[in-house]
């Protein structure tokens, strides 16, 4: 492509709400064969809501929700925000929390009233050697509905299980189908559990997924695909996605996502729609053919 056609292509993309950082990304987009999509905030709206609350025998649900929200006070994770919002909606005040520690890909550990508490996924519960067996039936009930489980525990036992659901973006399925129709292999990548990921993947027509991926391992999934000879775009919104966005042949950030993701990306899609991915590739192909 000529410099003039690249400038024209970047301008054409901008009119469609696609911000391209450099002309090279515009030219390379036509050569992609694989699109890796983060789940939370990329395929889903990233505005999860608390749908289900299960408490252990003899426990008080409100008191535990208050505890959960207090532990999540320092968290930047969307699940933490959801739990805080639910507690606030019930007028519950935060308890004083000490020794807050966010454990990437797992959850949070913190101290209240001299007691250590944990809030997070099954991986965190297993790491603390907490018995999951009594919760299996309820866990499977959440899995069947595609709800993400969040456990609250002290150092002895699990106290509560929350089910949090995140709606799929309105145009996610159509955007993914368009990519597949362009001959691209579309893959989902998430730190969430396989059961939840499969539920979402099925609804948007994604056949390949990598679930339970720790934040530090997301970029390795991209590197492995590249090693196999693929030209890979990564699409993400979160701080956790930044290394994978940087590693990919083309990193594409959701404009409604975090500044860290946008800074790591070559292309930013304005707003939250995924429509711009296929548009960017089409504009890239047109630019390489220099048709305007
Ligand atoms: P993703 O954004 O793809 O879900 P993350 O790596 O951010 O991936 O998180 C992976 C998983 O770790 C989450 O799905 C959740 O189960 C758990 N987790 C992480 N942070 C928190 C938190 N603050 N509260 C509860 N669970 C958390
Ligand atoms: Mg995300």
From TrEMBL:
The lineage of its organism: Bacteria, Pseudomonadati, Pseudomonadota, Gammaproteobacteria, Thiotrichales. This is Copper-exporting P-type ATPase. It comes from Thiothrix lacustris. It comes from the Bacteria. Belongs to the cation transport ATPase (P-type) (TC 3.A.3) family. Type IB subfamily. It is found in: Cell membrane.
């Amino acid at each position: 492509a000529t410099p003039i056609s690249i400038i024209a292509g970047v301008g054409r993309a901008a009119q469609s709400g696609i911000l391209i950082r450099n002309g090279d990304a515009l030219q390379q987009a036509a050569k992609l064969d694989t699109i890796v999509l983060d789940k939370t905030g990329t395929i889903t709206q990233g505005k999860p809501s608390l749908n289900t609350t299960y408490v252990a025998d003899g426990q008080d649900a409100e008191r535990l929700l208050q505890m959960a929200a207090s532990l999540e006070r320092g968290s930047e994770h969307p699940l933490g925000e959801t739990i805080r919002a639910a507690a606030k909606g019930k007028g519950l005040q935060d308890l004083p929390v000490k020794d807050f520690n966010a454990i990437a890909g797992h959850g949070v550990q913190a101290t209240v009233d001299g007691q250590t508490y944990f809030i997070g996924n099954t991986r965190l519960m297993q790491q603390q050697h907490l018995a999951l067996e009594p919760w299996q039936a309820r866990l499977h009930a959440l899995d069947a509905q595609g709800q993400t489980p969040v456990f609250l525990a002290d150092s002895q036992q699990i106290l509560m299980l929350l089910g949090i659901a995140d709606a799929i973006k309105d145009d996610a399925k159509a955007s993914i189908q368009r990519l597949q129709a362009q001959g691209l292999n579309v893959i989902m990548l998430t730190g969430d559990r396989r059961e939840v990921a499969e539920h979402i993947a099925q609804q948007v027509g994604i056949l390949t997924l990598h679930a339970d991926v720790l934040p530090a391992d997301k970029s390795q999934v991209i590197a492995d695909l590249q090693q196999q000879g693929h030209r890979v775009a990564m699409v993400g919104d979160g701080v956790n996605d930044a290394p994978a966005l940087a590693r990919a042949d083309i990193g594409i950030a959701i404009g409604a996502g975090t500044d860290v993701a946008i800074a790591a990306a070559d292309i930013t899609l304005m707003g939250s729609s995924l429509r711009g991915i296929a548009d960017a590739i089409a504009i890239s192909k047109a630019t390489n053919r220099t048709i305007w």
